[in-house]
Amino acid sequence: xxxxxxxxxxxxxxxxxxxxxxxxxxxxxxxxxxxxxxxxxxxxxxxxxxxxxxxxxxxxxxxxxxxxxxxxxxxxxxxxxxxxxxxxxxxxxxxxxxxxxxxxxxxxxxxxxxxxxxxxxxxxxxxxxxxxxxxxxxxxxxxxxxxxxxxxxxxxxxxxxxxxxxxxxxxxxxxxxxxxxxxxxxxxxxxxxxxxxxxxxxxxxxxxxxxxxxxxxxxxxxxxxxxxxxxxxxxxxxxxxxxxxxxxxxxxxxxxxxxxxxxxxxxxxxxxxxxxxxxxxxxxxxxxxxxxxxxxxxxxxxxxxxxxxxxxxxxxxxxxxxxxxxxxxxxxxxxxxxxxxxxxxxxxxxx
Length: 351
Known about the structure:
The longest helix has 65 residues, at 73-137. The chain has one domain: Outer membrane efflux proteins (OEP) (Up-down Bundle), CATH 1.20.1600. The chain has helices at 2-11, 34-44, 46-67, 73-137, 143-178, 199-204, 210-229, 237-301, 307-343; strands at 31-32, 186-187. The radius of gyration is 30 Å and the shape is elongated. The chain contains 9 helices and 2 strands. The chain has a two-stranded parallel ribbon with strand order 1-2. By secondary structure, it is mainly α. 32% of the residues are buried.
């Protein structure tokens, strides 16, 4: 509907991008796309940079060990495992940084929505105040009615100021994620989240988990060490039995890590399913609100309702649109958390 496009086109322009010199043409404001923001945040993230350095170190060590003809099998195995863990750590750090940037980006979009809604609410409050003043001057309303309408205007103006300040802060947080001191940009809408993966697909991600990978490495190393010393003629029986015990312990630890991760993945997937259901409910509520706007517009054009009634219906539809956007972002966030959990990474916190 026309009002949705207009409201959100205005909302996507941050306040500092609207300030231009007197008499000067407004400078073009760059547009930032969702994936571009995530890539820039990952490149700027300190944990990602550190993980890249760790991977480079691990790869150099692996090359050195492989090039050394005197290197033992266990030393090569340890170098290979260190390189695999460094790869996994870099992937986890990158996804964590992208998650933090995605959350900041979505929060900025939601802040734009709140500014647009607060502006529309203020316009309605001002219209109601004008109507109260006219009725008061005509003797059809009391001074108390007029004062209440004025108070409503002041409250709506404060709400708009608060929304603008919150949007400023949201954009500053996004700029911080991008590694910029300030980022006067216009944001494009975030992409719609994908479907919730089925449980078998989620479980297939478990072996990429950093904790599971480390436990699998411990088991492989313990098995290699046990094989290396399993020479009864030269190794005491007690040492051989101790090595075998370490293998059993490592196998139990790997099984336990897989069990715990499987439960956590199921819980995270359940959260995503619940978020998808809330998004569906928000879609239905928005459809109802848009239908009400359509009806009120027909009635307004027929002269059976006032323009203010139509404006209030449009405001409610704006609120439902914002609620639907929030529900969509919540689903996207739960899907990101599911991926982070599979990798063994925590939620992103910033550069």
